[in-house]
């Protein structure tokens, strides 16, 4: 369970602040949003926001982590019916690209404020990367057991897959047209799925 998920579950005030932050950042972006703006939107004092989250960077990070957690639930639903881990990896890659581009916060910030959001996805994105790698590692480990694959640690493969997906999101210019879902599937089938047995 991520910190954002714990916070949301255990603290209704923090949940309200995160809801307000999501709305504020989606409508106005990160650069034009302050802790005061989030406090007003949440109907709490500025002090309350600072007590719960400390800094704007932490609030942004926790908002992104919570959206990550929600995305994992949608991704699970999208690939649950597929019979093999290989098929789930291929379709999961396509769903992840589609969802991130269409998401009002993730996609909106990448389009409108790439220079502002970039640190949260790279040098300051350790918690988000770790949460995503943990999520995929758990799925790969369960697939190893269910499908009788070798019991090697799947974390390096999970991290490599996540880093590849993030790189396409941050810099979509490529010889592969990732906006075309058939091409994205073909890429994932050829280059990512074989990592499962590497």
Automatic annotation (TrEMBL):
InterPro entries: AlkX_C, Homeodomain-like_sf, HTH-type_TetR-like_transc_reg, HTH_TetR. SUPFAM superfamilies: Homeodomain-like. Residues 34-53 bind DNA. Keywords: DNA-binding. Residues 11-71 form the HTH tetR-type domain. The keyword DNA-binding applies. This is TetR/AcrR family transcriptional regulator. It comes from Streptomyces violaceorubidus. The keyword Transferase does not apply.
């Amino acid at each position: 369970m991520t910190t954002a998920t714990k916070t949301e579950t255990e603290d209704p005030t923090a949940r309200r602040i995160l809801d307000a932050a999501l709305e504020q950042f989606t409508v106005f972006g990160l650069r034009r949003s302050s802790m005061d703006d989030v406090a007003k939107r949440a109907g709490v004092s500025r002090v309350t926001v600072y007590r719960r989250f400390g800094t704007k960077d932490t609030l942004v990070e926790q908002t992104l982590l919570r959206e990550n957690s929600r995305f994992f639930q949608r991704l699970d639903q999208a690939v649950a019916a597929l019979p093999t881990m290989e098929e789930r990896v291929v379709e999961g890659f396509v769903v992840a690209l589609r969802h991130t581009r269409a998401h009002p916060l993730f996609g909106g910030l990448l389009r409108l404020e790439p220079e502002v959001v970039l640190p949260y996805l790279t040098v300051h994105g350790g918690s988000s990367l770790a949460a995503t790698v943990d999520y995929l590692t758990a799925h790969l480990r369960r697939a190893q057991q269910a499908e009788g694959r070798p019991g090697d640690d799947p974390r390096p493969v999970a991290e490599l897959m996540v880093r590849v997906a993030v790189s396409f999101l941050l810099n979509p210019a490529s010889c592969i047209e990732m906006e075309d879902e058939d091409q994205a599937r073909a890429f994932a089938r050829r280059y990512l799925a074989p990592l499962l047995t590497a």
